[in-house]
Amino acid sequence: MTLPLFLAYCGALFVAAAIPGPGMTAIVARALGSGFRPTFFMGLGLILGDLTYLTAVIMGLAWLAQSFPAPFLVIKYAGTLYLVYIAWKLWTAGLLPQDIEAKKSTGTSFSAFLSGLLVTLGNPKTMLFYVALAPTIIPLETIGMRDYALLVGGTFITLMSVLLPYILLATRARALLKRPDALKWLNRSAASILAGTAAWIATRAA
Fold this sequence. Notes:
The chain has 206 residues and is mainly α. It has helices at 3-18, 22-34, 36-67, 69-92, 109-121, 124-137, 145-168, 170-177, 180-205.
């Protein structure tokens, strides 16, 4: 896997992770109520959930890409259309301000970790993102163990670079998520990046 494709994957993942959603709402709520340590373990659980989806997609779609090229091409274009749809929704409707309530944790670090894992595994948007992203940016038919290890490391670093600021600046993040002007800027910036990524993918897949 080439460096530009790896950077494209990390960039798209960063944008998707930075957009407020169930995972980030849970992280901010836990940080407001419980402090850094349990929230950090919850973040590790969220990341493991992403890695679970990434692994499943690479294993399943890599086999599909090698055995059935035509359906794989259909999945590629379906993924492109999905990214365009996300961009359109962000630009027009956007994301609603998140109603975040501080949650005091009474459990262990393991329970915080498990809650983060379950949040990700139970979020269909995470699954759809990996199913759409993997066949359009990552060359699944040529992925080896070295490439897989690189993707795991890149996924961990990218997600952690998004999670840590949310954890450390939970109070400011909460204010940001409730400001309509900030949401509009975030939505349209993310929409533009996703639309550009979709256009690049469509050209590459043709």
